[in-house]
Amino acid sequence: MNIKDHLSKVTEYFSPKVIGEVNDVYVKVAKIKGEDIPWHNHKDEDEAFFILEGELLFEEEGKDSFTMTKGDFYVVKQGINHRVSAEKECHIMLIENKSTAHTGEVESHVTRSIEEQLK
Amino acid sequence: MNIKDHLSKVTEYFSPKVIGEVNDVYVKVAKIKGEDIPWHNHKDEDEAFFILEGELLFEEEGKDSFTMTKGDFYVVKQGINHRVSAEKECHIMLIENKSTAHTGEVESHVTRSIEEQLK
Fold it and tell me: Which residue ranges form the domains of chain A, and what is each CATH number?
């Protein structure tokens, strides 16, 4: 299936949807707009970001913030506090362990259960 | 780093290069042109394909062959014999377990060790 068809089913910002299962990881797509994702980390889990469309502001502790654009690929390593936001709508692909909570241990109004992400 | 920069370093067809490590998986890019990849399977490992540019002919046992185009995402499940080829140069992203041999247990002239893929 094309990534655009998967994205067309995403109706909420910050709400990742699983598009594939590859061994112990889920591949997901999400749409980001705004600053609603809280600072968080994934204690034992790396998380990969790939920009499909638009621009994503990436903030990571101990680093200068940087802007990711279409085609950029970045892995935030386990345990590192980070936050992503976007002024305009941005489409991303995520590669995460199945066990990864997308906002880490931080519960916020954008937090979605894995069941919701699998719908 | 942008996927185009990673791809610009790929000088051989069928020779995947690791662009990121996410927990137990490697994310790779590769360029495909021709029919040199042998039929193979990955006994215990799923393998994800994402088309970055061009068209990829996907053949999988028990299915009609199909053509993947830019933005298409597909996971071939563990143990299923498959083969990919491309008439014109095609750029792909792969998501594979670190332990996955890219041509399965089949050794061919395109087979590359993980050390070569990490260079």
Answer: 3-118 (2.60.120.10)
